[in-house]
Amino acid sequence: MLLQTATILLAITALGGVLMAGIRFTAKHNPPAWLAMLHGLLAASGLTLLAYAICTVPVPATAKLALALFLAAGAGGAGMSLAYKWRNRLLPAWLVVVHATASVIAFVLLALAAFGLA
């Protein structure tokens, strides 16, 4: 149940990420700060729940790998916010794509673990 709840939280987070990527690539400017902060807060909530699950109940190895990838993606997201967004510099497209790719791979791994397919 913990993994499924974390998966749902991170799915909602992903919707915000898709919206922000759409803003970045179509409007050619950074998404609003409130949306980026909400995205980060939801991601942190899902990752905290995932880490708690890993520490307290037996989980598949794919869930542990998902956590590692999500943490790397989170570091990239925080880096984008601190190094670019808060300095009013346009987010580099390659960094947005790497962040999204790591997050999607991690999400698929987590979903497989959460719903008993891994």
Explain what the structure shows.
- This protein has helices at 2-27, 33-56, 61-83, 93-114.
- The chain has 118 residues and is mainly alpha-helical.
- The mean pLDDT is 95.
- The chain is built from 4 helices and no strands.
- It is elongated and about 45 Å long.
Keywords summarizing the entry:
single chain, 118 residues, mainly alpha, 0% strand, elongated
Outline:
With 118 residues, the protein is mainly α.
Report mean pLDDT, rounded to a whole number: 95
Please count the helical segments.
4
Radius of gyration over C-alpha positions, nearest whole angstrom: 14 Å
**Beta-strand segment tally:** 0
N-to-C SSE series?
HHHH
Outline type? elongated
Unreliable stretches, pLDDT < 50, 5 or more residues? Answer: none
In angstroms, what separates the terminal alpha carbons? 15 Å
Topology readout:
Blueprint: H1 2-27, H2 33-56, H3 61-83, H4 93-114
